[in-house]
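Reviewer comment 2.1 asked that we show a complete input and output for one of the modelled complexes. We chose the pyridoxal-5'-phosphate case, as it is the one discussed in the main text.
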Amino acid sequence: MASGPAERISRVPPYLFAEIDRKREEALARGVEVIDLGIGDPDQPTPAVVVEALAREARNPAWHRYPSYAGDLLFREAAAEWLARRFGVELDPRREVMALIGSKEGLAHLVWAYTDPGDPVIVPDPGYPVYRMQALLAGGEPFLWRLEPERGFLPSLEAIPEEVARRARVMFLNFPHNPTAAVADLSFFEEVVAFCRKHEILLCHDAAYTEITFDGFVAPSVLQVPGAREVSVEFHSLSKPFNMTGWRIGFAAGNARALEALGVVKTNTDSGQFTAIQRAAVVALRETPAEFFSRMRSLYRRRRDLVVSALRRMGIEVPPPRGTFYVWAPVPRGYTSASFAAALLERAGVIVAPGSGYGPGGEGYFRLSLTVPDERLEEAMERLGSLTWDLST
Ligand code: PLP
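Response of the prediction step:
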């Protein structure tokens, strides 16, 4: 028999969605028509100009060879131009922008570039699981930085113990936030950047949802804070804003030294993204009409309002989120995140994500995703509504 896997594999806690996956299979076997509001994956297509660009670029034999490690320079230039247009930040595309095979890849590899065994890694709780799980895999000690419901799910810097601040080399942040849908303004980023400068911590801001905001809120970049690039790297993704989750393309921008370290991990791990995809992403960044983004925002806003009002009718009050395509809501009394998610699947055939899957700070909540067609979402909310009497018992 082959030997077992490395000890680090056992450091990763059991997959919390496994139980949901099992129940989903059971429901499907019973013939239940399951509606999946668990996954955040846009249902709308990639802009047509981008698809056409890929078809064209795929025919170029030059791209059939290995791509450049740091990314195609044209892609990095287009990313830098986009950051300048959108946030007013000027970066050197050669030193301060790096192509990623989706932002998840960059976030994961950054942890390896900045974590030695035993190092604290500051991660939001609840939060996108990749930061915490990669910290565990790398032998680090995640410090779960609690997002505080009473502060609109912003964390407070005072909650970071002096000892953690002194020893940590890296902090993760993500606004607009998955899973709570919370947003942060520039003044919050200013405080965090000042903290990271003081304690010499690399701030990694996961900016996956900056383009999906509502009600007049415009999400800032941490790189807008003066001096931020001395201590920050921001991770951008084409996945959510351009409906390109399957394409696997994103970029890291900011501190050149951190990108160099990330490059060491990457060059020894992956060999970059297909250049044809990078060239199509150039078209996405440069040529996607503004109307596309406003259409996507109004689509998600409409769905958000539908879900928020349906929840209200069920006796679950949530303020309408101003960012992301998620709604984060408290579970009714008597349920845990997992038992409520299981009950919804069993009784209504609706999958939601249990909050505890995003860290202990998510216990007592569930997340609904707005990335299913309107009529499916309406149907899901009708099914949940018909359970109201049951939920409060
Ligand atoms: N960061 C957050 C907060 C996410 O929710 C996701 C995807 O769900 C990602 C990063 C990964 O995105 P990408 O498709 O760019 O790897």
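Residues 212 and 324 are 5 Å apart (CA to CA). We note this here for comparison with the apo prediction described in Section 3.2.
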